[in-house]
Amino acid sequence: MKKMFTLFLLVCLVKLSYAQPPAGLANAGDTYGEKIDPKGVATLSQVSKDLAKKDSVATKISGKVVASCPKKGCWMEVELEDKSKMFVKFKDYAFFVPMDIVGKSIVLDGIAFNKTTSVAELQHYAKDAKKSQAEIDGIKEPQKQLRFLADGVLVVK
């Protein structure tokens, strides 16, 4: 049993070490992760109301990608209708998005939740985003963020 677990762990680590962003450009109609229907997108105010009652909410939400992990496309920052930003990761680290997705309008399907993000994690993402050392060092307080764990991403335009 111990050998099986070790083998499974080794296979997972090898798979993650070779994970790369999808080749090509993010074009309107492209889907990453699970295929999703653009109909039934919730408003930010509805998501906020639902999150006032629950810890997390299964929903669809739309926005414009303003940042993405420049290394692998393993996270995104999305600007919502009120110009606030939402941090997005992908379920089970199972898929990534192309580097040129920044500036594209998208629909996300998955789980929205609020999270207080630690200074160390904020600094890690700032480093990933190739922020200056001064900007990274300027992160001194944890931050409450709207987060999203996406099952799928649809590029709208």
Strand order of the largest sheet: 2-3-4-6-5
- General form: globular
Number of helices: 4
Domain module count: 1
Organism: Niabella yanshanensis
InterPro entries: DUF4920
Protein name: DUF4920 domain-containing protein
Keywords: Signal
3D architecture notes:
The protein has helices at residues 2-17, 44-53, 119-128, 133-137; strands at residues 31-33, 56-68, 75-79, 85-90, 105-117, 143-155. The protein has a five-stranded mixed barrel. It is built from four helices and six strands; from the N terminus they run H-E-H-E-E-E-E-H-H-E. A hairpin with a 5-residue loop joins strand 3 and strand 4 (85-90). The chain is α+β, with helices and mostly antiparallel strands and 157 residues long. It has one domain (21-155): OB fold (Dihydrolipoamide Acetyltransferase, E2P).
Write a compact overview of the structure shown:
This protein is of the alpha+beta class. It has helices spanning 2-17, 44-53, 119-128, 133-137, and strands at residues 31-33, 56-68, 75-79, 85-90, 105-117, 143-155.
List keywords for this structure.
157 residues, OB fold (Dihydrolipoamide Acetyltransferase, E2P), five-stranded mixed barrel, 4 helices, DUF4920, signal, DUF4920 domain-containing protein
